Amino acid sequence: MRFVLLLALLAPVAALAADPAKPDKTDKTDDDQSLYGMGYIVGLRNLEGLGLSARELKILEEGIGDAAAGKKAKFDVDTQMPMIIAFAKARAIAGVNKEKAAGLEFAEKAAKEPGAVKVPVEGEGFLVYRTITPGTGAAPAASDTVYIDYEGKLTNGNVFDSSYKRGLPAEFVLRQGIKCWTLGVAKMKVGEKAQLICPSDVAYGDEGQPPNIHGGATLVFTVELRSIKSSKGHQPAVPQRLQRAGQN
User: Fold this and answer.
1) How far is residue 31 from each of residues 67, 125, 231, measured CA to CA in Å?
2) Which residue has the higher pLDDT, 61 or 153?
3) What is the model's pLDDT at position 46?
4) Which parts of the chain fold into alpha helices (H)?
5) Distance from first CA to last CA of the chain, Å, rounded?
6) Got the DSSP string for 138-202?
7) Which of 31, 65, 201, 203 could form a disulfide with 125 if both were Cys (CB 3.0 to 4.6 A apart)?
8) Beta-carbon neighbour count of residue 141 at 10 Å?
């Protein structure tokens, strides 16, 4: 889990503790920016969901700084390890629960918008489906290979993935996608453009897909179904961003 990775990765970026501020490209060297980037990546992947206060972050930086300087720890860290893990785990869980609650509120509100359809998912909550531009072709089965363009955003509007930016539509077997995609895209017709709002239970769950998708995150997809290929023969691999949890 994220809190375990946190403990493993803090040491290599210990040099950041002395200067946690964002580097100014006008007066920072390439090495400074590399060090900042290392710290930012670790923070984004491991610390963001812990909800650390300014005071707590300062204490964390003190520990990193002491380790980087080769100083003796102020207490027996090995003895404290069970409590460190418990603290990180509790904070991570609290962060996920907060993210899930905010995402569900977002999805429920979206479900009340004109044209939106709230689609129940047995045992896993719901997704929200809204047609933007109708299609006139066939609808895919879960076993079909679909050819699509899409953009994925977080509820704050940040784009975490886009086939449009890559200039290359995605092609994969529909049932290999996250539950929201398997059910949502199956409701589309070729030529259709739709919006799918996917609460975490039908997306990436409590684990998310760090660093860009937090645990518990609700996702907003704009999807265009370009074409459907036969379910027989070659079946392209699903893009990692759209993979169902546990799918290789």
Assistant:
1) 20, 47, 51
2) 153
3) 67
4) 2-9, 30-42, 54-68, 77-110, 163-166, 179-185
5) 19
6) PPPPTTSEEEEEEEEEETTS-EEEEHHHHT--EEEEGGGB-HHHHHHHTT--TT-EEEEEE-GGG
7) 201
8) 12
Q: Would you state the structure tokens that stand for residue 234, as one six-digit string? A: 């070659």
CATH number for the domain running over 105-242: 3.10.50.40
Each residue's pLDDT tens digit, 25-55: 556 688 888 888 877 777 766 677 777 888 9
The neighbour count for residue 25, using CB atoms within 10 Å, is 9
Selection from 46, 6, 22 nearest residue 211 by Cα = 46
pLDDT tens string 91-125: 888 989 999 999 999 999 999 999 999 999 988 89
- Residue type for position 169: P
| DSSP secondary structure letter of residue 136 | -
- Report the Cα 193 to chain-centroid distance in Å: 23
Q: Tell me if 170 sits within 8 A of 239, measured CB to CB.
A: yes
Report the chain's mean pLDDT, rounded to a whole number: 82
Two structure tokens written together for 84: 């460190």
pLDDT in the model for residue 10: 44
Alpha-carbon distance of 100 to 92, in angstroms, equals: 12
Domain positions in the chain are 2-74, 105-242
Going by their DSSP bridges, the two strands 145-154 and 159-162 should be labelled as antiparallel
Residues in the chain: 248
The one-letter amino acid code at 113 reads E
Across the range 55-60, mean pLDDT stands at 86
Copy the structure tokens of residue 87: 């603290």
